[in-house]
Amino acid sequence: TTAANAAVVVLAVAARASAEGIKIGVIKVAGTGALFLAEDRGYFAAEGLQPHFIYFDAAQPIAVANVSGAIDFGATPPGGGFYALAGQGALKIIAGYIMDWPSFQANGAVASLAAYNKGFHSFQDMGGKTVSTTQIGGAPHYAWALLAEHFGIDLKTVHVVALQSNPNQLTAVIGGQVDAAMMPSTVFTAALQEGKVKLVGFAGDITPWQLGAVFTTAKIANNEDQVRRFLRAYGHGVQDYHDAFTNKDERREDQATAPEVLDLI
Fold it and tell me: Which pTM value belongs to this model?
């Protein structure tokens, strides 16, 4: 009945209003899909939590924001700043995040048109080139280092510049200020499709590694009830994200099979 439906709505609104608000620092990329799904499908609400996503353009500021109290949880690739704070006991890793893995691409490199036309077509061509990262010690920097090691290239011959954010990296590589930039594929996909940059490759296809982590402050980590509820909700989102893209053989399904995930980003 109309009255019954209205009662359900009132109860849902009341439950949402009484939910415990939490702030989660993320970069708005496909890798955050598990958290977006957990919010969209009510997994956080079922645990009495109301997430508020705070968006950043690079990973390192998320760790700083967590320590300052601006956010409660962070989900991103840890960088040098994170490890410095964690080494002091200020941050705790509470779960895994995304991996850079063959066919499940996260970080990729794109070259400027000028650099591509001069022969920068693969990671083996990086010697003597100028490439970018967000911060020194950040995930893109580490990816460049892994690839250099894999191909036997002395990283000292590669000029790595820190541009502080992914949008800055994209602008620089499109404009030719750097020869190539390493960043989440979500950031450069449109530019690649428009022909403004050329794909060099995906780091995880060559050097798989654990790219990210979910973390919080030491103080919040001691609130075991809240952390457990957060992790239960997040775990359901992870399972849904996994199932949307992965078949029974643990191989990648076509992205077209899971448009609802991409629509949340």
Answer: 0.84
